[in-house]
Design goal:
Elements: H1 2-17, H2 22-25, H3 88-140, H4 148-195, H5 203-257, H6 266-269, H7 286-289, E1 297-300, H8 309-322, E2 328-335, H9 340-363, E3 371-378, E4 385-390
Parallel strand pairs: 2-3
Antiparallel strand pairs: 1-4, 2-4
């Protein structure tokens, strides 16, 4: 009877084993994946990168510079596999580990601040451009001179542009802080490398030093990327504000006249020059050469309130479009007729007209060091003139 039970148990065990293959019971030695259930280990959050794209501010960003996309990643944080060895070198390692974690925390904070300031600057740029575009659109369809509604909008646009200056100052301050972090990272890297040469270390100390050195090198890369992004964003917004400052000056002239002239002429020359005196010297050499050159525009002041600004702007804008580095000679010419007192009076009046044209050019944004001024008299003219020559 006992023998019969033994046979029964063996048979039952054999039947159970036939439902499983040997490959399901024993691990594979061939390198193939086992057919049983697999355990999938998810990637650590440390390996996930937080991307930041340096895009241009929407709606009329600075137009001349293309934008390169960059990626800034959060610091990973030091791997928590560091144990105390009890050696002097081990204590140095612990200190450097704390310094590195502090540095990484600082970089994470700087990055968050950068994102906030950049987004604020973008919103301010959008608000400014919307206001400036509304003024321009109203002027293009026609408006009364000195329209108070447009003047109020112009003041609002100037305030919005001032807020952009505040954002630029915040970016500069943040850049200085990140530069200090960069200096700290360089110091820490040198300290880690110097620790390798200390005596009394065990293998675990050098293993931990290698971890800290690798993390420090990676942090240096992240700092450099953040510095590059800050520098690029700051330069872009600075150029944008400088350009729009000049456009606002021209826009103020357009509001005053009730007609839109166009963007600032200085934006076509590519730089902002220093201010110069508007004094007009007298040149006797012009008497002989004035008729030999061909002026690009002649403004005759033969009546009161001569309207010349639109024609003047269009002419100079066309010249600068073809030759951005052009300079101009502005010459006041008075008729050489009558008594010496009458000629002197006409010459002074011509100089006053030249001053009027010069102020208009300044409002249009033409750099003052692109203009040379002179005055003369001529028997070939019948009334006061202001001629402009390109060179």
């Amino acid at each position: 009877m006992a023998s019969f039970r033994s046979i029964t148990y063996v048979s039952a065990a054999a039947l159970l084993l036939t439902g499983c293959s040997m490959g399901d019971i024993w691990p594979s030695l061939t390198g193939d994946e086992p057919s049983g259930q697999q355990i999938v280990i998810a990637a650590s959050e440390i390996d996930e990168a937080a991307d930041v794209i340096f895009d241009e501010p929407e709606n009329n960003p600075p137009r001349s510079e293309p934008v390169r996309a960059q990626t800034i990643q959060e610091p990973d944080g030091l791997i928590n596999s560091v144990s105390r060895t009890g050696t002097y070198v081990g204590s140095k390692v612990q200190q450097q580990r704390v310094e590195l974690e502090t540095l990484q925390s600082s970089i994470g904070t700087r990055r968050a601040q950068y994102v906030v300031v950049r987004n604020t600057a973008r919103q301010n740029a959008q608000s400014y451009y919307a206001t400036a575009a509304a003024i321009t659109a109203r002027l293009q369809v026609g408006s009364t001179p000195g329209n108070p509604i447009l003047s109020s909008q112009w003041n609002a646009a100037q305030s919005e542009l001032d807020r952009l200056l505040t954002d630029i100052a915040a970016l500069n301050s943040l850049g200085n802080q990140v530069a200090a972090d960069s200096a700290m990272a360089a110091y820490l890297l040198e300290s880690v490398r110097a620790t390798y040469g200390l005596q009394g270390a065990v293998d675990e100390d050098h293993r931990q030093l290698a971890l800290i050195e690798d993390e420090t090198n990676r942090t240096v890369v992240l700092i450099n990327r953040l510095l590059g992004g800050l520098r690029e964003t700051t330069d872009r917004y600075t150029n944008y504000v400088n350009s729009e400052r000049r456009n606002l000056t021209t826009l103020a002239l357009a509001i005053k006249n009730g007609e839109y002239l166009g963007p600032s002429l200085s934006n076509q020359t590519g730089y902002i020059p220093p201010l110069k005196s508007n004094a007009i010297p007298h040149s006797t050499e012009l008497d002989e050469t004035i008729d030999e050159r061909r002026p690009i525009i002649v403004i005759r002041f033969d009546r009161q309130n001569v309207e010349f600004k639109q024609a003047l702007y269009s002419t100079l804008s066309a010249v600068l479009e073809r030759r951005p580095q052009s300079a101009f000679d502005l010459v006041a010419i008075a008729p050489n007729q009558g008594t010496p007192a009458e000629v002197a009076l006409a010459s002074n009046t011509a100089k006053g007209h030249a001053q009027t044209v010069m102020r208009a050019l300044a409002e249009m944004g033409l750099p003052s060091d692109r203009i040379s001024l002179a005055s003369t008299t001529s028997s070939s003219v019948q009334t006061n003139e202001v001629r402009i020559y390109a060179r």
